[in-house]
């Protein structure tokens, strides 16, 4: 019954396999029920019984010859995580004190690295603030990968509809909407933990970096490519930041060609890891690694305090 208990989402990922033996059996049973309701003639009954006997015989023979492959497919379906289910399920750190302490140390090292980049110090303060606010989270996760900081999570109970209404305020407001109708983050709405799909994304990136065994120089070039994000709106020195980003990619490419001459795909693999990093949300990083210790504190205020002492 694994096919009946699988995901009921729409789309190709949630459709049942119409070629499975179980589906054919159920289909034949439903056809037989329809035939009985139509009350066929005795001659038609004999014909239908002969057809069902031959069909069951063919199904029995096909089941005996492909039982191993069918059970393997069922096992694979059971192990595959449903995307809609993982987005609803939530998780938190199993050892928050230990992990948050390690993440805080990495954040301090990351901001120190940013401060020591000469090209960054030449930018106006407005551009510096914009780059730090939008780049601290991916830079932090990149630092976690460099320092080999791993973490374990545990699944939390999904809040009920009543809990969502109560945490959203009076009048039956949604927990993800404030009183002015503006969308609220899950952190400000009081929802515990983060989505398991977000946790899986962070862990997948860390594993990717560790499998590639990225060197110190490669991490430095990747940090430069992340820091000088020319896609942000409101940058005063946009063209200069674009050139810095291109230089970071070019330096990374030249380093890879020089050190890893036999691996022609390494630069592409590093770019794939970089794309995975850009998909990680800053609010998720803040809620997962810092909220368990410092609470619902605005991370921008923390960054300003650490970076500029303001």
UniProtKB/TrEMBL annotation:
Keywords: Cytoplasm, DNA-binding, Metal-binding, Nucleus, Receptor, Repressor, Transcription, Transcription regulation, Zinc, Zinc-finger
Signal peptide: none
Chief location bin: cytoplasm
Record region (Disordered): 171-191
Entry keyword rRNA processing: no
NR LBD domain ranges (all copies): 68-310
One Gene Ontology term, aspect cellular component: nucleus
Stretches assigned to coiled coil: none
GO MF, one example: zinc ion binding
Subcellular location(s) per record: Cytoplasm; Nucleus
SMART domains, sorted: HOLI
GO BP term, pick one: negative regulation of transcription by RNA polymerase II
PANTHER family: NUCLEAR RECEPTOR SUBFAMILY 0 GROUP B (PTHR24081), NUCLEAR RECEPTOR SUBFAMILY 0 GROUP B MEMBER 1 (PTHR24081:SF1)
Family statement drawn from the similarity comment of this UniProt entry: Belongs to the nuclear hormone receptor family. NR0 subfamily.
Name of protein: NR LBD domain-containing protein
Organism: Esox lucius
Organism lineage: Eukaryota, Metazoa, Chordata, Craniata, Vertebrata
């Amino acid at each position: 019954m694994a096919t009946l208990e699988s995901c009921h989402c729409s789309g190709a990922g949630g459709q049942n396999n119409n070629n499975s033996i179980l589906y054919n059996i159920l289909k034949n049973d439903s056809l037989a029920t329809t035939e009985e309701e139509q009350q066929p003639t005795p001659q038609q009954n004999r014909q239908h019984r002969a057809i069902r006997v031959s069909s069951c015989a063919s199904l029995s023979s096909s089941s005996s010859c492909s039982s191993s492959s069918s059970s393997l497919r069922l096992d694979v379906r059971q192990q595959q995580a449903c995307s809609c289910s993982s987005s609803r399920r939530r998780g938190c750190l199993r050892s928050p004190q230990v992990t948050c302490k390690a993440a805080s140390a990495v954040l301090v090292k990351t901001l120190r690295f940013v401060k020591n980049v000469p090209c960054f110090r030449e930018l106006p303060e407005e551009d510096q603030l914009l780059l730090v606010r939008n780049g601290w989270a991916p830079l932090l996760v990149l630092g976690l990968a460099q320092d080999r900081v791993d973490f374990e999570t545990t699944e939390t109970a999904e809040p009920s509809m009543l809990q969502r209404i109560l945490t959203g305020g009076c009048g039956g407001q949604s927990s993800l909407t404030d009183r002015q109708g503006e969308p609220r983050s899950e952190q400000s709405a009081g929802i515990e933990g983060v989505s398991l799909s977000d946790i899986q994304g962070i862990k997948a990136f860390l594993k990717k970096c560790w499998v590639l065994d990225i060197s110190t120089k490669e991490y430095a070039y990747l940090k430069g490519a992340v820091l000088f994000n020319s896609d942000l709106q409101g940058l005063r020195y946009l063209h200069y930041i674009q050139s810095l980003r291109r230089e970071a990619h070019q330096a990374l490419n030249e380093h890879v060609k020089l050190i890893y001459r036999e691996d022609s795909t390494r630069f592409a693999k590093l770019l794939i890891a970089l794309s995975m990093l850009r998909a990680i949300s800053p609010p998720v990083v803040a809620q997962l690694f810092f909220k368990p210790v410092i609470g619902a504190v605005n991370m921008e205020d923390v960054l300003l305090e650490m970076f500029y002492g303001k």
